[in-house]
Design brief:
The complex is a heterodimer of chains A (348) and B (279). Chain A is built from 8 helices and 21 strands. Chain A has 348 residues and is α+β, with helices and mostly antiparallel strands. A 6-stranded mixed β-sheet of chain A has the order 6-7-8-3-9-10, sandwiched between helices. In chain A, a hairpin with a 2-residue loop joins strand 13 (248-251) and strand 14 (254-257). The longest helix of chain A has 17 residues, at 166-182. Chain B has a two-stranded antiparallel ribbon with strand order 1-2. Chain B is globular, with a radius of gyration of 24 Å. The chains are: A alpha+beta (348), B mainly alpha (279). The A-B interface holds A 50-52, 72-74, 77-79, 81, 83, 85, 87-89, 98-99, 101-103, 130-132, 146-147, 150 and B 172-173, 175-183, 186, 190-191, 194-195, 271, 274-277. Chain A: It is an enzyme of class 7 (translocase).
Amino acid sequence: MKKIELVNISKKFDNDLILDKINLNVEAGELVALLGPSGCGKTTTLKLIAGLLGPDQGDILFGEKSVLNTKVEKRSSVLVFQDYLLFPHMTVRDNIAFGLKMRGVSKAKREAKAESLLEMVDLPGYSHYYPHEISGGQKQRVSLARALAIDPEVLLLDEPLSNLDYNLREDMQNLILELHNKNDMTTIFVTHDHEEAMLLSDKIAIMNKGKVEQYGSGEEIYKKPVNKFVADFFGTANYIKGRIEKGSFYFNSTKIPLKNQFNELNKNEINTAMIRPENIEINSKVKNGINLKAEIIERKFIGGKLNYRFKLKNGHELVASTFIEDHNILNEECNLSVKFENIWFMAL
Amino acid sequence: MSQRNSEKITKIIQNHKLRRFLLYSIILIMILPLLYLLIWSFARRWPWPYLLPEEFSLDSWRYFFNPSSGALAALSLSFFISLAVTFLALCISIPAGKALGLYNFKGKKIINSLVLAPIIIPPLAVTMGIHINFIRLGLAGRVIGVILVHLIPTIPYSIKILTDVFAVLGDKIEEQARVLGANSWQRFFYITLPLIKSGILSAGTMVFIVSFSQYFLTFLMGGGRVVTFPMILFPLIETGNRPLAAVYSWVFILAALAFTIIIERIFKNKELSKEYLQL
């Protein structure tokens, strides 16, 4: 179990800046997700930590020590690739025992370890199968077991769930959490799915265009995004333009007092209020909040949730969603209210 | 109209009778000359216009196996040279194929096209220059010189084959082995080598056969002192001793065939024949 620190890491491929001075602190034993759209540099970051790539600039620390001069095979990290990459000419057991064999562990010992790991990933009795004889989900389990066999201090997972069927994902999520907790590792995984990131990780680093936009818990990022990119990546949001006057935010004639619903960094540039759809209450009045008249122009049932589209008097459109409770009143006027604490301000 | 035509063509292709007819005719066309050779090897006199030889004899075969003919010695020398060439060519082609198949570097395109040059450029032109240098270096007229010169027409094939093999294999699986703690030798022996085995097999067989049937390069570089099997066979064909030439030809074919089959038997184990390793 080691703390990982990325300090000012930059990486270029043929003059394309893939990572631009990235800083990231992962505490020992934490499970952190690198989240972002494809091409944002998250897999490159993972490969840099594993050592398969070298940074052009900056430093990578495991514990307090720089690992830049430590060879990939000597780092205490293991990377599990997205497409499992089991060795096709070896049985499942030999695959799992491979890392131990490379370290000169005796045959009896490494085979015993492989068997116990197969049990841990719920595949007892599969030791003599070849990779082409097992399913995708089973391959994923074997590749996890193979990585765990060498007792890594840092486990790196590249899109661990993206190749799996929907119904297999939950099993695998639980397995990853279980293994992470059982094995005293610092785990970093890459994903482009924000739900997956929130379900699995302690902290999320959301990346875009080679930069870490925000780093924090899923809840924090969802509720307090630093910018529109982050807000949009985590789900739908309503944006209302306005202006700051005497410590309050105004749009049209509505006034919202500014307390602490903003990021200190862009305090002086605030010009937009962000409201998540589920924070809009329909046909109720709140005291410490805003109340608006609006007309329902669309209602969609999406299973357990209803999505609405509203039109305000000034023509501005808002989206809201409710659970179960139905306001089946198309084209009728109703009252929308949002508590002050559920409004988040940002600079667009 | 064109669709109907293509349907017609598909029908013709799917016609099993026609397909079988074509297949057997091709086999027949290839085997008939060999049969003819086999008959010749047992003939003493076979004048025109007889369908079969007037007299049969085992003289030619007897002569072949007589140590004084030097045929068996030449055959074993040929095997030795071709095996050495195969070994050297593979030692060069595996790293070269890996570099060309997996990595990007300056001048890669030029090297890629130059690799085939020895096959495209007439060997006579290339070898003349090499010959002069080999004489200076004292390599001409010696087995080692012949082995080295055989690398010229063989390496292009083995590099090309192995480049494609590595390109298909990719380097991710080696990266995976690396993060699991395998150093470069371990990666090569435990991962790469087993996975490219069938590619090495094809490349090796190709090199062996091309080297085994070299006449001109051996003739030039060996200066008559390195007597390989083709060195005996070719003059026989020229002088018109047909029964003897037939014997040598058959031995030639059988030797190459035997080598290929034995090598395949040794290296193609059960796992390799499985579909996932068809690189």
